[in-house]
Each structure stands twice: as C-alpha cells, then as structure tokens.
Amino acid sequence: MSQAIVNLVYLISAVLFILGIKGLSHPRTAVRGNLMGATGMFIAVVVTLLDRHIVSFEVIIAGLVLGALFGTILATRVPMTGVPQLVAIFNGMDAGASMLVSGAALEEALSGGFFEEITVVFSIFAALAALIGTLSFSGSLIAFGKLQGFVVERPVLIGGRHVVNGLLLLVCLGLSVWLVVDPSTSLPFWLIVAVAGVLGVMLVLPIGGADMPVVIALLNAYSGLAAAGSGWVVSNNLLIITGSLVATSGFILTALMCKAMNRSLANVIFGGVGAAVATTREVEDIYAGRVKSASPEEVALLMESARRVVIVPGYGMAVSQAQYAIRDLVNLLEPRGVEVEFAIHPVAGRMPGHMNVLLAEANIPYEKLKEMEEINPSFAQTDVALVIGANDVVNPRARDADPSLPIAGMPIINVDQARSVVVIKRSLSPGFAGIPNPLFAADNALMLFGDAKDMVVALVAALREA
C-alpha cells in the first residue's frame, strides 16, 4: 500500500474524528458523531495494520470480530449507572496501550526490527508515554474501584503523600534522562513503568468520590498525551493527531469542571475534600428540631396544586435507577397543566453529563433539561423544587464566605428560593463534601426519607389516586 493512500486515509480519519467531536456537542447529533468517530478509528486501525504488514488478514479479521463482540457485550450489559466506571476503564486501557506500544517499539529498535535507530526524540517520547501512560492506567483503575465501590470512596490521606509523590516523580524524571542519554537498554523504560504505576495510585487515592468527574476528565487528557507520545515514537501522524484531540478536549473539560465547582485543579488533586466528616454537634446545631418529614401522599397534594415543578437529579437518582419512575411522574403532572423542568448541575453524578445521559435513557425530552445558569433565576417562580438524591450541589452553605468550607464559593442550584422544596434522601447523612446541609432544615423544605426510586413510585401512585 502506497504511502500516499495511507496518508489520505489518515486525513479522512482525522476529519471524521473532528466532525465526531463536534457532533457530540448536542444530543440530536451525538449518535451520528459517535458513529463518525468509530468509523474513523476503524479504518485507521485496518489501514495501519495492512500498511506495515504487521499481521495477516486472518489475524486482523479475528481481532475485529473479537473487538466487536466484546464491545457489543459491554454496550448491552453495562447499565447507564455504570458508564462512569466504563469510561474510567477505557481511559486506563487507552493509556496502557500507548505505554505498551512505545515499549514494544523500543524493544524492536534495540533488536534491529522496524526502527533503524533510536533518536533523542524517540527516547523522549517513549519516556513520556511510559510515565503518563502508566500513571493514567493505574490511576484509572483506582478511579474505577472508587466508582464501583471496590475502593473506599472517601479520600485516603496517607501521611507525607506529597513528599512521596514528589520523590516518585523525580525518580521518573531521572529514569527518563537515563533513557535519553543511554538508549542501549530498555531497563529505564520499564523502571519508569513500575514507578509511575505507584505514582498513579498515590495520586488518585486521596481524591474523593465527588471529584470523580474532574478526575475522569483529567485522566482522559493524560491518556491522550500518552497516545500522542506513542505516535511520535512509532512515527504515526494519525496517532499524534488523535492523542492531541483527546488531550486538548480532556483538559478543556477538566477546566470547565473546576470552574463549575469554583475550585482549582490543584485543590481537586491535593485538597482531599470529603476526608473530614461533620461532627455530631455541628449536625445537631443545624438539624435539631427543624427537619420536617413528609409522606408521599402529602407531597402528592403539594404537587397537585402546583403550576411549576423543577426536578433536581443527583447521584442518588443514578444509584436507585429512578429515572424511569421520574418519567412516569412527569407524564402524570403535565396533563394536569403543571410545567415540569429539570435543573442540571455540571458536576452532578460521577462524570460530566451523567444526569443528562440517565434522563435521556428514560426518554425525557432534552428541551426540559436546563443548565444551572439558565434555570437559577426562575426558582422564585417555582412552586415545588423536587431534589432527588442531590446534596452538595444544592447546599446553601456554598454561599458562605468561610474559606474552610470545602464547597465555599461553589455555584449551586438555588432550590432554596422555591416556594416549597421536597428532598428525597435516605437519611440526613452529609454528601461527599462531608458537611451538613441546612436546606434540609429550611422552613420551606420537606424531607421524603427513603430510596429514590421507591419514593418516586409511591409519589406517582399517590398522584394517581388523588
């Protein structure tokens, strides 16, 4: 296959990647964008394997069949609530693959294979792929464990961790210099892999579950950097382009997530938010004698007379998979002349857009989903704000000037400004930030204690009987 044809196919793939990312910017074009990106990757992989004569046609076909089968199983078996975990694993696999490709290229060069010589550029980017790729791989595994419940969700703060992390990074940089200065051995490369693996674990363990959306976006950016680095190693322009696109979009998304929480990236990575839990006295000072519990029947009466209801979904909705029951609730309210909208916080759930994906799965019209900035001014004209499993993103204490509060200054959804607020929650336990929420004890708030799905189903039943 001529190089001109290969470059032409690579150009087509790159265009498909760019158009695919553009398509993902809106739900109406998201499916088409996803298909365009997948098509670009498919033809890029096939052409690369055919161009270099790396494997036979039989092996290529077998790989495509196995990959398609595995992907189909994941697509049909993994629930929407498990998508954040799946994304974390994908990030890790991408980064790990980039590291292995660079390692294989280095071993090939040392044995006189595809690469005639090991240049300085080759060594630098091989070290980059080893460091960032392995760090992202091990960090993604910890992120997956936190999301899946295999690893404790709260920050694990190890004494002297910053010093240890700094030393591990210095060791990786020293090994990288060794690899560049002495390219006659692959030992420093694999030592970087070992040390960077520990560094990835040490960096993600102290980060709490509430910050997983930011971590996932950041690890995605890391995996893109590792891919671009491996592209320089194997002299593959498309891999460089693809890795750069992933890295850039990942860093932009990370910045947007940090802005949504009014926190710096350094605070997310090193802050350990959620490690300290509120004391019993602090909880009693806020809640004692002020929390009002309600029944589904009482809430049904409240909603029956409402003209406007705003639903605020949180991770509790995802855990109980209450989105279908919520759809039934919307279908009951709207024929009664009730205007229903959804207020979506940028960091609600476990990954960017998590709530949007879950509600789309239940066929909630996208037009009903309003971003925080758009819907906040309208809460004063809202009869009932229904909070389902959200905590920190509706906590009025974020408006406090006290800098010691982990959510101080974070933009929140202003549900406390509605005429009535109904909060569905299992208990009064604090959110991931570890602080109590005075919204639960507000004069205009009612607590509906229980599983989110069970309570919404009971609310639907009460409305039907009303």
Strand order of the largest sheet: 3-2-1-4-5-6
Form type = globular
Average predicted local confidence, pLDDT: 87
Rg (C-alpha, Å) = 25 Å
In short:
It contains 17 helices and six strands. The protein has 466 residues and is an alpha/beta fold. A six-stranded parallel β-sheet has the order 3-2-1-4-5-6.
What does this structure look like?
This protein has helices at 3-23, 27-52, 57-77, 83-110, 120-148, 161-181, 187-204, 212-234, 237-261, 265-270, 280-287, 296-304, 315-320, 323-333, 354-361, 372-375, 452-465; strands spanning 308-313, 339-344, 369-371, 384-388, 420-425, 445-449. It is globular, with a radius of gyration of 25 Å. Helix 1 (3-23) runs antiparallel to helix 2 (27-52), helix 4 (83-110) packs parallel to helix 8 and helix 8 (212-234) packs antiparallel against helix 9. The protein has a 6-stranded parallel sheet with strand order 3-2-1-4-5-6. The protein has 3 domains: 1-77; 81-270, no CATH class; 280-465, Rossmann fold. With 466 residues, it is α/β, with parallel strands linked by helices. It contains 17 helices and 6 strands. Helix 15 (354-361) links the parallel strand 2 (339-344) and strand 3 (369-371).
